[in-house]
Amino acid sequence: MSSTAAPGSVVGRPPGRRLPSLKGGWGAIPFVAPALAVLLFFLVVPVVWTIAMSFNTGAGLRFRRWVGFDNFERLLTRDGRFLDTDEWPWSGALINNIRWLVVYTLLCLILGLITAVLATRVRYEAVFKAIIFIPLAISGVAVALIWRFVYSPDPSLGVLNAAIDTLGGDPVSWLGQENTVNYAIILAYVWASTGFVMVVLSAALKGISQEVIEAARTDGASEWQIFRRIQFPLLSLPIAVITVWLIINVIKVFDIVYIMTNGGPGGASRVIAFSYYVETFQNGQGGYGAAVAVVMLLLIVPVMLLNIRRFRSEAIQA
């Protein structure tokens, strides 16, 4: 004799009984296991292997001899190409990255913020944003090649020197002088990165309630006061996120330096990632190159921790 299931009940399960819950989250493991496996293989294992390699000599994936902290001692005290403290101002790849950190980050934030604010006040906003954003869509190699022509010492090729020649000045070898080469490369990379900063900050500006801004205008606040007291404080979180992105870009910058100057002249434009490439792939010193990579990692980790801490504080305040 068959029975009829009650409306709303599930066939095969007695009415009133619930399926057992997956306690402790263990039931999610089959779903996250593929992603964890990818992270383990492509992130955790290479990081651990690189750290282990930095305490050894060797090449490729082969350890030869344990040397302890000798690679780091040589890197920070005896390798003038990485850090030269014998004369002031200090020089080397690490100092160049610090120069990049200050100049590149500040210029991108300032120019990106200015263009984001201006974009909301121009008639053809979409066209204006597209023009500023186009360099971001170009690969780093293409950006480097474009700016090599811009900086060419030949006035018939180089835009800057053509302008200087028109004004009656002498051509300048922007990429051939130690005192100008780093700033010339930084300017080229700023040109390629400002569009991203502008887009993010422009979206954040549009997310600010217009009612608050209109109320401030009604109360007699000027545009500068509105920006300084309302808009800029509300942009603190997007600016923090963009700053982290820019800092990471600075620490791992490589392609534009390699194409524009190959670290020259005389190693004046070397950066940390370029030093890693040279030591590992050109000089065949895998252990020493791994020490350079570990220094790069140590510079990135504090930035990420500060960003995570800031996100948590913002979440608590919300």
Would you kindly provide a brief summary of this structure?
This protein is mainly α. The chain has 13 helices and 2 strands, in the order H-E-E-H-H-H-H-H-H-H-H-H-H-H-H. A two-stranded antiparallel sheet has the order 1-2.
Oligomeric status of the shown chains? Answer: single chain
CATH class: Mainly Alpha
Strand residues, percent: under 5%
Q: Low-confidence parts, pLDDT < 50 over ≥5 residues?
A: none
Biggest sheet descriptor = 2 strands, antiparallel
DSSP strand tally: 2
Task: Kindly report the name of the CATH homologous superfamily.
Answer: MetI-like
**Strand arrangement, largest sheet?**
1-2
Helix/strand order, N-terminal first: HEEHHHHHHHHHHHH
Query: What is the CATH topology descriptor?
Result: MetI-like fold
Which class do the helix and strand fractions yield?
mainly alpha
The rough form would be described as globular
Number of domains: 1
Mean pLDDT: 87
Rg over CA atoms: 27 Å
Helix content: 55-70%
Number of helices: 13
The end-to-end span amounts to 60 Å
What's the arrangement of secondary structure elements?
Elements lengths: L28 H26 L1 E4 L2 E5 L3 H9 L14 H27 L5 H9 L6 H11 L8 H8 L14 H26 L3 H9 L4 H12 L1 H16 L3 H6 L11 H11 L3 H32 L1
Antiparallel strand pairs: 1-2
Task: Describe this protein's structure.
- The model has no long low-confidence stretch (mean pLDDT 87).
- This protein has one domain (48-57, 65-82, 91-317): MetI-like fold (Orthogonal Bundle).
- The protein is globular.
- The protein is an all-alpha fold and 318 residues long.
- 64% of the residues lie in helices and 3% in strands.
- The protein has a two-stranded antiparallel ribbon.
- The protein has helices at 29-54, 70-78, 93-119, 125-133, 140-150, 159-166, 181-206, 210-218, 223-234, 236-251, 255-260, 272-282, 286-317, and strands at residues 56-59, 62-66.
